[in-house]
Design goal:
alpha/beta; Ado/ade_deaminase; TIM Barrel; adenosine deaminase; 4-stranded parallel β-sheet; 383 residues
């Protein structure tokens, strides 16, 4: 008999507090999906933007309930509220500073925050001004954490929106700021119908200038989207990437193992084999993947649950997987909570959870020396 979602969350809650004190790595977290509810309410009031609720707890619940739609497109609709209050340099600085402080409070010591500057120009900010404001806020947050004897390093992933035609322009912004806080590039937004091949010239420019790339793929679209992210997007990591499991065939064997357990044969298709053999990192966001319907095709029942997630299969087969939040406000999660939830679901111990931190760190866009220094901190603490 499988555990219910309520049982899993109850078990995860007991583990979450312990994990909060351990150093962690976050590679897939959207700035505009991770505001504090109270900050969103305050900033919305200043510009006269109407929110579903003026109560912080009620607003957080509303976002979580809206996220449980089973649709990526519906999930993305909630960002109209958050981006509305992130149109000035002052507000971007505040949101970015609080973003760092909140991650540090959850034990994160390295993060790559992704956001799309093109969505923050409604009140006249240039792309460069928006990137500079966010970096100022990130710097302020890191300084605050350091003043409290904490450690956190945060780099920007500049995203271009797939449904617009500004990728070439956004690439140039990312390149101008690569030595000023920007560590990489991403494309975000609706996946289906907007393949990476649409931005082939932009990805060629990035490869020429050797700025690393992560691409949202294998979330809202299937295996061909993953293939295109690897070929046209030249992705070093895959944002989510969970639908790479569609390229894996699992065949139940007639024979039983000596332990009396079922034996399965697994065949990897060409895309899955490429991702596994070359250790292309999968930036998995468990709760978000359930909410957006990314794992609906793997569900045994009518509605997908976390136990249907192919995460464990991918991990057991040697794929390079990490655990992320995607959007902490929208999904109503923390990184410690996601790790605890996945541990409760798949019976992982601290050893496996530490593996996910090292996987993420080694796949990050940090330099080799910086990765080595943080890896020592992580291994010492988790051991």
């Amino acid at each position: 008999m499988t555990s219910t979602a309520a049982d899993l969350r109850s078990a995860a809650a007991k583990l979450e507090e312990q994990l909060r004190n351990l150093p962690k790595v976050s590679l897939h977290d959207h700035l505009d999906g991770s505001l504090r509810p109270g900050t969103l309410i305050e900033l919305a009031a200043e510009i006269g933007h109407e929110l579903p609720s003026q109560d912080s707890e009620e607003l957080a619940v509303h976002f979580r309930e809206n996220a449980n739609s089973g649709s990526l497109e519906k999930y993305l609709e909630t960002f109209a509220h958050t981006t509305a209050v992130m149109q000035t340099a002052q507000n971007l600085r505040r949101v970015a500073k609080e973003y760092v402080e909140d991650l540090a409070a959850d034990g994160v010591i390295y993060s790559e925050v992704r956001w799309a500057p093109e969505q923050h120009q409604e009140q006249g900010l240039s792309l460069d001004e928006a990137v500079e404001a966010v970096q100022e806020g990130l710097n302020q947050g890191m300084e605050t954490v350091a003043d409290q004897d904490g450690v956190i390093v945060v780099g920007q992933l500049v995203s271009a929106m797939r449904q617009s035609d500004r990728a070439d322009e956004i690439v140039e912004v990312a390149l101008r700021h690569r030595d000023k806080g920007v560590v990489g590039f991403d494309i975000a937004g609706p996946e289906a119908g907007f393949p990476p091949s649409r931005f082939a010239d932009a990805f060629t420019r990035l490869a020429t200038e050797m700025l690393p790339v992560t691409v949202h793929a294998g979330e809202g679209d299937g295996i061909e989207s993953v293939r295109d992210a690897l070929v046209s997007g030249r992705a070093q990591r895959l944002g989510h990437g969970v639908r790479v499991a569609e390229d894996i065939s699992v065949i139940e064997s007639d024979a039983d193992s000596e332990a009396g357990e079922e034996v399965f044969q697994v065949e990897l298709g060409p895309v899955a084999r490429w991702v596994r053999d070359r250790q292309i990192h999968l930036e998995v966001s468990p709760t978000s993947n359930v909410q957006t319907g990314a794992i609906a095709g793997f569900a045994e029942g009518d509605a997908a649950e976390l136990s249907d997630h192919p995460f464990d299969m991918l991990y057991q087969l040697g794929f390079n997987v990490g655990v992320n939040t995607d959007n902490r406000l929208v999904s109503g999660v923390t990184l410690s909570g996601e790790l605890a939830l996945i541990a409760s679901t798949f019976d992982y111990g601290l050893g496996e959870l530490a593996d996910f931190q090292i996987n993420a760190l080694e796949s990050s866009f940090l330099g080799h020396e910086e990765r080595e220094a943080l890896a020592g901190m992580i291994l010492e603490a988790w051991q």
